[in-house]
Amino acid sequence: MFETMYSANGVGLAAPQIGLSIRLFVIDSTKWEEADTDEKFKQVFINAQILEEWDEPWKFEEGCLSIPGIRENVSRNAKIKIRFMDVNFKVHEKEFKGVAARVIQHEYDHIEGILFTDKINPLRKKFIQNKLKDMSKGKVKADYPIKVSRK
């Protein structure tokens, strides 16, 4: 999954994004300029469960490898506590803040069946509705391969 994420220049990727119905996501924010030094990390999250979200919600422009070309402001809590297993199936319980917490929440949403566009202002969502419809019909441009899933 890391290789797929790197080839698309992403900082996170969840298994459902590549057609796997498992609760797994990966993150590598070590090269992401927007992250503070203490927020940069590389981690595999298996069977993750967010235990708490707190602190003042803040908006930040997010994008997604599943929805290329669309970026919107999303409000998320600044701090989280999460329990997960690593690649060796060792259980961890950790707190994250800032950009790290945001990236984890974004990828966690994928394993819960939620996209960042589900969290944006309804007026902004209406504004991008045609782009989303075009994507669902396969009319999408990206620098990486995309498989359009039609229901």
Describe this structure in words.
The protein is α+β, with helices and mostly antiparallel strands and 151 residues long. The protein has a single domain (2-136), classed as Peptide deformylase (Peptide Deformylase, Alpha-Beta Complex). It has 3 helices and 7 strands. The strands form 2 sheets. A 5-stranded antiparallel β-sheet has the order 1-2-3-6-7. A two-stranded antiparallel ribbon has the order 4-5. A hairpin with a 5-residue loop joins strand 6 (79-85) and strand 7 (91-97). The chain starts with a helix and ends in a 15-residue tail after the last helix.
Which descriptors apply to this entry?
7 strands; 151 residues; Peptide Deformylase; five-stranded antiparallel sheet; two-stranded antiparallel ribbon; single chain; alpha+beta; 3 helices
How many structural domains? 1
In N-to-C order, the SSE pattern is HEEEEEEEHH
| Count of β-strands | 7
General form: globular
The amount of helix comes to 10-25%
β content, as a range? 25-35%
Average residue-wise pLDDT: 90
Q: Cα distance, first to last residue?
A: 25 Å
Question: What's the number of helices?
Answer: 3
Which structural class fits the helix and strand makeup?
alpha+beta
Say which CATH homologous superfamily is assigned: Peptide deformylase
Main beta sheet = 5 strands, antiparallel
For this structure, what is the CATH class? Alpha Beta
Secondary-structure arrangement, i.e. CATH architecture: Alpha-Beta Complex
CATH fold group: Peptide Deformylase
**Order of strands in the sheet with most strands:** 1-2-3-6-7
- The radius of gyration computed from the alpha-carbon positions, rounded to a whole number of angstroms, is 15 Å
* Low-pLDDT residue intervals, each spanning 5 or more residues: none
